[in-house]
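Chapter review. Work through the record for Chaperonin 10-like protein before attempting the end-of-chapter questions.
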Amino acid sequence: MAATARTARAIIAYEPQEQKLNLKLENTTLRDIGPDELLVRVVAVGICHTDLIFGTWPGDMIPYPKVLGHEGSGIVVKVGSSVTAARAGDSVLLSFQSCQSCQSCKDQHPAFCAKFAEINYGGEDHVYASADAATENNFRGGFFGQSTFAELSIAKESSVVNVSHLIKDEEELKLFAPLGCGFQTGAGTVDNVASATDRDVIVVLGLGGVGLVSIMAAKLKNCKAIIGVDRLPGRLDLAKELGATHVINTSDKDVDVAKEIAIITDGNGSSVTIDTTGNMDLIRAGMEFTGSRGQLIFVGVPPPDALLNVHIITFLQTGKTIRGSIEGDATPSEYIPQMIQSYREGKLPIDKLIKFYPISWIFHLRLNFLATPAYLAVASLCRFINIVIRKVTTASSCFGKQKVMNARLASLNYSLS
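Structure tokens for Chaperonin 10-like protein:
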């Protein structure tokens, strides 16, 4: 069924079953847009680890049912009465929502908005409703101000970046979908949070989508040394292709990351350490090998109850700092165009990280995420790399076998049947 101005198919996330995604493709209707909202026809959406987190947490922690998705790209269908960021027909990328009135927002740091968690994670009730008259389900929308696992999204104006003047065609609009979150986070952490220069030695822990874009951004800054750490050989090889000067393979449990980095840096350690994994063992190692006056920056999400013991005297004597990074501390309307320009110049080759899948693939993910070791390649890929799903427009093609586009990671094994 093709989407209309008010009717669309959407992937509904119901309360998880045994910590597994519980997704259904359903026909829905959408409420009217408000003054500060836009109706957007979604052409592509990335899958981020955050989608998996908020689709697998138990129902007593977060509300269900809802529409996830927060790396959308699309075409504006209609705008609210107060919207000035775009008009009908414009091509847009969708990013996070911000209140635009707190001190962080006024200081041009919207990623640290005082209401970030409230307005991005919770979403809004009664955005979507079942089109089936036999059901009374109402589905939450507004995830990160957008909810783009759907043919149509009601997006907040603060989530919208107008790129009509920057893109060549709709295929490129699809390619740029992950710029709104994952890629913005990786590059922005190097640029805006670390303020990296050519004097820096950067260590990136975890070489998924965020980590690999951090490698690209570090190369753009001509950093003195760029060290990538991961356990998958394919990622390590790609990191070297994208600019890493050194890589460390942690698949061998006997590898001591801190010692390896000490050897590479002549005992000086890193000046910038970016953790994209949330792995507490790697984070603790990062505290050790980050050098004097260096920065340890948290990007990856650890377990909710994770704690870190800090030896205060060591930090006092070395001047090390620990920082957090949300969305690369970026202002999307300014930073996303910069990333597009870097891509144009061949300096941010994000196309090397992106694969297109038909929408049916997400149901394969539902069946196999956290299921058996045979599917760890799929779960691992989803956890660390933003995957753009090619939007399909007919129900028959949605569930059939589709050609996989832009096949980059040859180690991935999966079936769409």
